[in-house]
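User: For my dataset I need records formatted as: sequence, then structure tokens, nothing else. Please produce one.
Assistant:
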Amino acid sequence: MKTFLPKIDVQRRSWRVFDADGAILGRLAVQVADALRGKDKPVFAPHLDAGDFVVVINAEKVVLSGKKEDAKEYMSYSGWKGGERYRSVTEIREKHPERLLMHAVKGMLPKNRLGDKLLTKLKVYAGPEHPHVAQQPAVTAYQG
């Protein structure tokens, strides 16, 4: 018996909108990552890009559970000596609130070329407006 390989129709990708207002960061990131990979579709294959485009609005209103709002830190390293830098959640939320969700979703995607390709289909906006109205995105309810 031959292994079934699904045909992915790139032209028929749909667009989804998630509203992050009051959503818990990790739980929302799981749903977004699953939609990007296409895990909820019958044609899912781990090595193929079968997912949809995802637009997340109100990223500045995402919530972290417990004491993570104060205690959690994100580390970045420039590659130079002494180039390690730690930023708190409140610092990131003030300057670039969409990066909180981007970082969480990126950690849930494969760490290879497929993951990089999937991340380009994620569009995150801090406020309630987005420029993808022409694509007629379907509103997806947050299940948290």
